[in-house]
């Protein structure tokens, strides 16, 4: 797919999260995930909420902070080959609208989860660790940072 | 039912009142973080360029001196005084009104004037018109293009070939299609200008090795291997290429291909071979430097050549395995975004290929003439001959350079003028002085074609000798 032709966007990955309907579909898919987990019999409500939180954070970490590069060839000879999707968003500009939205949603989900798990200690530990794996890579200080060389190439 | 739900909610709110302090503190911090994000953060780009103060800006504006849009150039700059050719650049070429024997155009096999080629081109012109008015993907693919591609693939005994409409753009599009940022290319110092532009466009790491020096190349490859061992994860995503030419246009010698193939398999790099000068020249059937050395064509990953030399058409082609060539159909910039080759030139190229296939004798005739000219040009006092005996484009360099390139060029130009007056057309090898990475020394390029007779060669050699004795005291 030779990308920079039909529109002049060099790397369309940067504008994916700003596209029409993306935020709504994201929220709705979290709701759908929650509904599916709720339909599993013999699982209590706190466990379901913790599972929702964990699966959401796991998917977010894998898709935004692990997978690197683009699925298509870009005309800039592979500038974004070693960048994760979060780093590619809006060409690296920090605190744009999409970035703020994607930072706030895990926090809101965490607040809801801690309410529905009745502030239980075990659930607290699990959910907080999960939240931290998703919040810390989003800090601007960690832009392009690869700790211990993990996921560098 | 409603009472049951309300009962659960009361339990929830009760749990909130009994929540542990650390948890509520953490939640408070998170809510403050959200507030900060939403209301107190500004978008900015990290690694922003160094911000100049007002004073620094004023200083820079003060110091700036405007340069003229067109820099002053002397009136006798060679690019402003060019020789005008009237008529075709065939064996007898009319330069500035004088008919001369052509020792300058790359018409190695004499196919420029071939009646068969001209007839086929005229028939094609009548059938298709002149241009294609579109790139290959946009109704610019004609049956002649497909036929030429399949004929070239069959001729070179590879799986597939792809045609470009401009010879310079062939290798300059092929290299950046495969090699991107972070990849490593090992290239010979004497690589031609189109290769250099391709390397520049690829944005890869370029490592130059000394011309035809396989030990230097091996040293570079060994260093790279050591680095790869230190960082195997990086090595796994780095592609490595070697780019060489079959017959070098700047130095008229041949690359040591069997040695390169051995290095390829030892250090796991891919070879891109640029065969513009050797296609239709070297080898028993004109298949190029692979046939010349007896190397299996499957060992070379990509062969690129332009059809503007021996084939006497326009454009270029790349050939290799289908897996490799197909990639260029979407990623070769010169293929996707330029109008395709005019059909009459494609038809001319097909006919030229047919002539080359039917009559492989011409290659041995050319080889004989090359060695004849090479022999005859030896021992001219003041000039040294550079090139292998079977190269059709030889270089005559000054034995002793005056130290200044422009005066050397003027000296060579005066030799060429002398020969032009005696109806022998030669040319000084021209380069873009500011753009070349490694400037070759100034030289006169002597081209051998099959159409030159013994008398022509003798006359040319005596003219050059005469000129050298006059000007090079």
TrEMBL record, chain A:
The keyword Endoplasmic reticulum applies. It is found in: Membrane. It comes from the Eukaryota. The keyword Transmembrane helix applies. Keywords: Endoplasmic reticulum, Membrane, Transmembrane, Transmembrane helix. One of its GO terms (biological process) is intracellular sphingolipid homeostasis. Pfam families: ORMDL. It is a multi-pass membrane protein. The chain crosses the membrane at residues 23-51. GO terms for cellular component: endoplasmic reticulum membrane; serine palmitoyltransferase complex. Ceramide-sensitive subunit of the serine palmitoyltransferase (SPT) complex, which is also composed of SPTLC1, SPTLC2/3 and SPTSSA/B. Plays an essential role in the homeostatic regulation of sphingolipid de novo biosynthesis by modulating the activity of the serine palmitoyltransferase (SPT) in response to ceramide levels. When complexed to SPT, the binding of ceramides to its N-terminus stabilizes a conformation that block SPT substrate entry, hence preventing SPT catalytic activity. Through this mechanism, maintains ceramide levels at sufficient concentrations for the production of complex sphingolipids, but which prevents the accumulation of ceramides to levels that trigger apoptosis. Belongs to the ORM family. This is ORM1-like protein. The gene is ORMDL3.
TrEMBL record, chain B:
The keyword Transmembrane applies. InterPro entries: Aminotransferase_I/II_large (IPR004839), AON_synthase_class-II (IPR050087), PyrdxlP-dep_Trfase (IPR015424), PyrdxlP-dep_Trfase_major (IPR015421), PyrdxlP-dep_Trfase_small (IPR015422). One of its GO terms (molecular function) is serine C-palmitoyltransferase activity. It catalyses: dodecanoyl-CoA + L-serine + H(+) = 3-oxotetradecasphinganine + CO2 + CoA; L-serine + hexadecanoyl-CoA + H(+) = 3-oxosphinganine + CO2 + CoA; tetradecanoyl-CoA + L-serine + H(+) = 3-oxohexadecasphinganine + CO2 + CoA; octadecanoyl-CoA + L-serine + H(+) = 3-oxoeicosasphinganine + CO2 + CoA. Its EC number is 2.3.1.50. It is an enzyme of class 2 (transferase). It comes from the Eukaryota. The chain crosses the membrane at residues 20-39, 161-179. Keywords: Acyltransferase, Lipid metabolism, Membrane, Pyridoxal phosphate, Sphingolipid metabolism, Transferase, Transmembrane, Transmembrane helix. Residues 100-462 form the Aminotransferase class I/classII large domain. One of its GO terms (cellular component) is endoplasmic reticulum. One of its GO terms (biological process) is ceramide biosynthetic process. Pathway: Sphingolipid metabolism; Lipid metabolism; sphingolipid metabolism. Its cofactor is pyridoxal 5'-phosphate. Belongs to the class-II pyridoxal-phosphate-dependent aminotransferase family. Component of the serine palmitoyltransferase multisubunit enzyme (SPT) that catalyzes the initial and rate-limiting step in sphingolipid biosynthesis by condensing L-serine and activated acyl-CoA (most commonly palmitoyl-CoA) to form long-chain bases. The SPT complex is also composed of SPTLC2 or SPTLC3 and SPTSSA or SPTSSB. Within this complex, the heterodimer with SPTLC2 or SPTLC3 forms the catalytic core. The composition of the serine palmitoyltransferase (SPT) complex determines the substrate preference. This is Serine palmitoyltransferase 1. The lineage of its organism: Eukaryota, Metazoa, Chordata, Craniata, Vertebrata.
């Amino acid at each position: 797919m030779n990308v920079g032709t039909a529109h002049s966007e060099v790397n369309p990955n940067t504008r994916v999260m700003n596209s029409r309907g993306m935020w709504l579909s994201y929220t709705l898919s979290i709701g759908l995930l929650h509904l599916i987990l709720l339909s599993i019999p013999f699982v209590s409500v706190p466990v379901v909420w913790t599972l929702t939180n964990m699966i959401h954070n796991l998917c977010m970490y894998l898709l935004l902070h692990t997978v690197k590069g683009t699925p298509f060839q870009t005309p800039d000879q592979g500038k974004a080959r070693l960048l994760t999707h979060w780093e590619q968003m809006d060409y690296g500009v920090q605190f744009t609208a999409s970035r703020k939205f994607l930072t706030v949603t895990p926090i809101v989900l965490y607040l809801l989860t801690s309410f529905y798990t009745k502030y239980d200690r075990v659930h607290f530990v699990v959910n907080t660790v999960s939240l931290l794996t998703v919040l810390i890579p989003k800090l601007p200080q960690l832009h392009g940072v690869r700790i211990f060389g993990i996921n560098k190439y | 039912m409603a009472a049951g739900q309300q009962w659960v909610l009361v339990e929830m709110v009760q749990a909130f009142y009994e929540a542990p302090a650390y948890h509520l503190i953490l939640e408070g911090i998170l809510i403050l973080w959200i507030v900060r994000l939403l209301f107190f953060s500004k978008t900015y780009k990290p690694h922003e360029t160094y911000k100049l103060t007002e004073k620094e800006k004023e200083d820079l504006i003060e110091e700036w001196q405007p340069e003229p849009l067109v820099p002053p150039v002397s009136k006798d700059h060679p690019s402003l005084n060019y020789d005008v050719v009237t008529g075709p650049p065939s064996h007898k070429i009319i330069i500035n009104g004088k008919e001369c024997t052509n020792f300058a155009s790359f018409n190695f096999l004499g196919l420029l004037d071939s009646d068969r080629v001209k007839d086929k081109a005229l028939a094609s012109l009548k059938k298709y018109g002149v241009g294609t008015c579109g790139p290959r993907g946009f109704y610019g693919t004609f049956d002649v293009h497909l036929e030429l591609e399949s004929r070239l693939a069959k001729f070179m005994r590879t799986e597939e070939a792809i045609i470009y409409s401009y010879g310079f753009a062939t290798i300059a599009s092929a290299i950046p299609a495969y090699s991107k940022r972070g990849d490593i290319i090992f290239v010979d110092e004497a690589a031609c200008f189109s290769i250099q532009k391709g390397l520049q466009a690829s944005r890869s790491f370029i490592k130059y090795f000394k011309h035809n020096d396989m030990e230097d190349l091996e040293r570079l490859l060994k260093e790279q291997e050591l680095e790869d061992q230190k960082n195997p994860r990086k090595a796994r995503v780095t592609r490595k290429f070697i780019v060489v030419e079959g017959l070098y246009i700047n130095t008229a010698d041949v690359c040591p291909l069997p040695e390169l193939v051995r290095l390829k398999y030892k250090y796991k790099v891919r070879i891109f071979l640029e065969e513009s000068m050797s296609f239709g020249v070297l080898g028993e059937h004109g298949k190029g430097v692979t046939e010349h050395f007896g190397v299996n064509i499957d060992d070379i990953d990509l062969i690129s050549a332009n059809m503007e030399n021996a084939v006497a058409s326009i454009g270029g082609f790349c050939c290799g395995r289908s897996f490799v060539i197909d990639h260029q159909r979407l990623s070769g910039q010169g293929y996707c975004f330029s109008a395709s080759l005019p059909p009459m030139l494609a038809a001319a190229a097909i006919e030229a290929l047919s002539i080359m296939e039917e009559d492989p004798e011409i290659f041995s005739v050319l080889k004989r003439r090359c060695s004849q000219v090479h022999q005859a040009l030896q021992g001219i006092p003041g000039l040294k001959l550079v090139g292998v005996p079977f190269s059709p484009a030889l270089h005559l360099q000054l034995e002793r350079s005056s130290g200044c390139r422009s005066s050397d060029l003027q000296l060579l130009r005066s030799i060429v003028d002398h020969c032009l007056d005696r109806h022998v057309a030669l040319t000084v090898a021209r380069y873009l002085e500011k753009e070349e990475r490694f400037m070759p020394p100034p030289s006169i390029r002597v081209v051998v074609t099959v159409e030159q007779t013994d008398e022509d060669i003798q006359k040319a050699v005596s003219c050059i000798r005469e000129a050298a004795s006059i000007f090079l005291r």
